[in-house]
Amino acid sequence: MKALSMMSISLFTLCYMLIFAGPADVTAAESTKISGWEVGSEYNDLYNSKELDKLKGTITKFTTVKPLPGMAEGTAFYFDEGDGEKILVHLCPSAYASIKNTGLRKGLKTKIKGSWAVIDDKDIFMASKVKQGEHFEFKVRLTKDGTPFWTMSKEELARELAAK
Question: Using H for helix, E for strand and C for coil, what is the string for the chain?
Answer without folding.
Answer: CHHHHHHHHHHHHHHHHHHHHCCCCCCHHHHHHCCCCCCCCCCHHHCCCCCCEEEEEEEEEEEEECCCCCCCCEEEEEEECCCCCEEEEEEEECCCCCHHHHCCCCCCEEEEEEEEEEECCEEEEEEEEEEECCCEEEECECCCCCCEHHHCCHHHHHHHHHCC
